[in-house]
Amino acid sequence: MTTTRKRLDPAVFDLPVEKMRAGWYTDAYFNYTREALRYDGLEPHVVMQVFQKRHAYLGGMDEAIAILKLCADDFDALTVNALYDGDPIEPYEPVLTIEGDYTTFAHLETVYLGTLARRTLITTNVVNVLRAANGKHVIFMPARHDHHRVQTGDGYAAYVAGQIVGAPVGVTTDEQASWWGGIGLGTVPHALIAAYGGDTVAAAKHFADWAPEDMNVTVLVDFENDSVRTALEVARALGPRLWGVRLDTSESLVDQSLWNELGDFRPTGVNPRLVWKVRRALDAAGFGEVRIVVSGGFTVEKIHEFEEAGVPVDAYGVGSSLIRGSNDFTGDIVLTDGKPSAKVGRHYRPNPRLELVT
After folding, report:
1. Residue 86's closest CA among 181, 162, 169, 139?
2. Ranges of the chain with pLDDT below 50
């Protein structure tokens, strides 16, 4: 098949090309294998087949192709067929095949498998969260939970998930948004409130004075663990400049507004009753247009619970749960010099969905 959909340009990824070509990021046994074959004068013509074992949504393919294009000894001598970022994939379905002299790309297996594993994990996790959120805005917030070098590709994987679902997803750093030309989003954080002596209203007013007119000003209202009172104070102080309030109560605390209602529900953290308390208070005070953003320990399961109960949330901030789990990929040589050569239990699986990479 010929390529019919657009892929990102390999230059976008800013790969450490020379180190990758030298096998610096490669499991040593692949480097050893390559050198042993060359020592013996062998250049086996192989078909490498790449797959994973779950129902998932593919991420990292454009990046993996960039690795092959920029770091293989002679990409033009290879025949590469692949699916696209965002494609739904089945267990054991080949997502990528590489055909050619194995010694020209053996040193890249670790890096393209790792790239596919990480990005597919993120894309799949974000798809599941977006679907659980029923079209509501989701803020991708794992930056503080992982190393800064993963931000760029993870942010793009989240963006791909948004394209799959057709639902809004925002990221919190400019680096996360860099491959697709977006910007990081942010709220008035606890740190700014602390810098104003713990006065949420003062911090919010100064932030709103500074913020560009097109910024949706959203303020954390849990600093004093009294979210209803603080939300009302901020709404009165900022008026129409306030886009939303964010509830982020620690899972080890019970908000003051719930202290007299304990006994028949789990009162800690951001829970449905707390959200309803804030919503009703804002509505009663004439601030029905103020949105409610929730964050802190949200997972697919917790979002499902909120949505099934009709909790009046306008946006979910989701952090560490989006980068947890695994989505491992495996690469097998399945044909060598035209003959089956896969290990027992594996075999060549032609996949008509794959498209030629040019």
Report:
1. 162
2. 1-3
Q: How far is CA 13 from CA 17, 152, 233, 246, 322, in A?
A: 10, 9, 45, 34, 22
Domain residues for the domain of 55 are: 10-121+326-356
The pLDDT of residue 275 is 97
CB contact at 8 A, 265 and 273 = yes
Distance CA 3, CA 68 (A): 17
In one letter, which amino acid is 289? Answer: E
Q: Please tell me the distance from the alpha carbon of residue 222 to that of residue 15, in angstroms, as a whole number.
A: 41
Maximal C-alpha separation, the chain: 81
Domain boundary among 250, 275, 296: 296
Question: How many domains, the chain?
Answer: 2
Residue type, 153: G
- Report the Cα 76 to chain-centroid distance in Å: 32
Please state, as a whole number, how many other Cβ atoms lie within 10 Å of the Cβ of residue 151.
21
DSSP 185-220: ---B-HHHHHHTTT-HHHHHHHHHHHS-TTS-EEEE
The confidence score (pLDDT) of residue 4 equals: 59
The per-residue pLDDT for 1 is 40
Residue 351's Cβ-side half-sphere holds a number of Cα atoms within 13 Å equal to 24
Closest of 288, 281, 290, 279 to residue 217, by C-alpha = 290
Q: What is residue 87's DSSP assignment?
A: -
pTM, to two decimals: 0.92
Residue 200 falls inside a structural domain = yes
* Dihedral in degrees, nearest 10, Cα atoms 83, 85, 89, 93: 30
Write the CB contacts of 324 (distance below 8 Å, at least 6 apart in sequence): 125
- The pLDDT, as a whole number, for residue 2 is 44
Phi, psi of 216 (to 5 degrees): -80, 100
For the chain, the straight-line distance linking the first and the last C-alpha, in angstroms and rounded, comes to 11
Give yes or no: residues 233 and 334 share one domain: no
| Contact call for residues 58 and 87 (beta carbons, < 8 A) | yes
Give the DSSP letter of residue 105: T
The CA distance from 134 to 132, in Å, is 5
The whole-number pLDDT of residue 3 equals 44
What is the C-alpha separation between 216 and 218, in angstroms, rounded? Answer: 6
